[in-house]
Amino acid sequence: MPQQRRRFAVRWIASRPPEARPEPRRPRRPAAGATPRYTEIPRWGLTQTFEPAAPMALADRFRAGELTAIRVVTRRVLWVLAGVMGAAALTEFWLYGLLVYNRSSPVGVSSTVAQWFAVIFGALSVLVVVAAAIAVAIWLIAQRDESYRADGMRDPRSGAQLLIGTVVPVVNWFWPMAFARELIDRRPDLPADRARRLVFIGGGAWVFLNLWAIATVTIRVNADSLQWQANSVLMTALCDLAVAGMALLLAEAVRRLADEKEQAQPTKRWLVAA
After folding, report:
1. Percent of the chain having pLDDT more than 90?
2. CA–CA dist 235, 238 (Å, integer)
3. Contacts of 254 (CB under 8 A, 6+ apart)
4. CB 254 within 8 A of CB 71
């Protein structure tokens, strides 16, 4: 009887080499609790060490407080100028209405009262205009000094030159525009193109307003008829309104220059979430 062959069961087992085997699983951590919530945007960020700022020198603190006081006084003087010129314009409109009414009917005491009010507000407006010009000149000197000192420089223009170029008639038609342009060049926190365009428009409006005032005074002095007197009164009223509007715009510009510098130094530090 032939001998039976024995069958051996062979099983192949495939296993990963040692370098390809995964690391053993770590034990699962317990739940950390509820998801944190914030009542406001978190202000934390990357770790950064800030060196303490050096204390401001006494002279610098005095200069900064002085500039703030000059800004406040300048804005208030410009507000007073706007109020006085607005009242003068209303008086001129009242007088113009009386002149128109007088063409067909006589007027009584109201014409005399209106004329006296026009004289009073006219004299007061001249005084306030001079005071406003001096206040703006002082503010411009202080503002330029601060801007140049921030760059470690001295203002190349003297205070006398700035004062004369801002206060003296005819000279102050063009020089304030140049002074403002130089100030803008020292303020990188301002939008340069927009600021220069506003200075150019404001300077052009200022020159036109001065020419309008000269024409108004000339017509009012040489008026030889009731119609031309009425026309000169109406031109005076419109000129007063324009001066009041320009005073308000200038007061707003003084405030904006201070606000733009404060906004240029952010107090918060924001980071994009990863």
Report:
1. 17
2. 5
3. 71, 74, 75, 78, 139
4. yes
> Could you tell me the pLDDT band of residue 58, with boundaries at 50, 70 and 90?
very low
Taking the C-alpha atoms of residue 198 and residue 256, their distance in angstroms, rounded to an integer, is 13
Higher pLDDT, 4 or 35: 35
Triad 234, 84, 164: Cα angle to 5°: 100
Residue 163 is encoded by which pair of tokens? 């004062």
pTM of the model as a whole:
0.68
Measured at the alpha carbon of residue 124, what is the angle toward residues 121 and 129, in degrees to the nearest 5?
A: 120
The angle that helices 159-167 and 175-185 make with each other, rounded to 10 degrees, is: 130
**CA 94 remoteness from chain centre:** 35
Whether the CB-CB separation of 144 and 163 falls below 8 Å is answered with no
Compute the distance between CA of residue 110 and CA of residue 121 in angstroms, rounded to an integer.
16
Distance CA 85, CA 274 (A): 58
In angstroms, rounded to a whole number, what is the distance separating the alpha carbons of residues 207 and 203? 6
Alpha helices in the chain (DSSP H): 58-102, 109-150, 159-167, 175-185, 192-222, 226-263
Helix axis angle, 226-263 to 58-102, nearest 10°: 160
Band of the pLDDT at 53, cuts 50, 70, 90? low
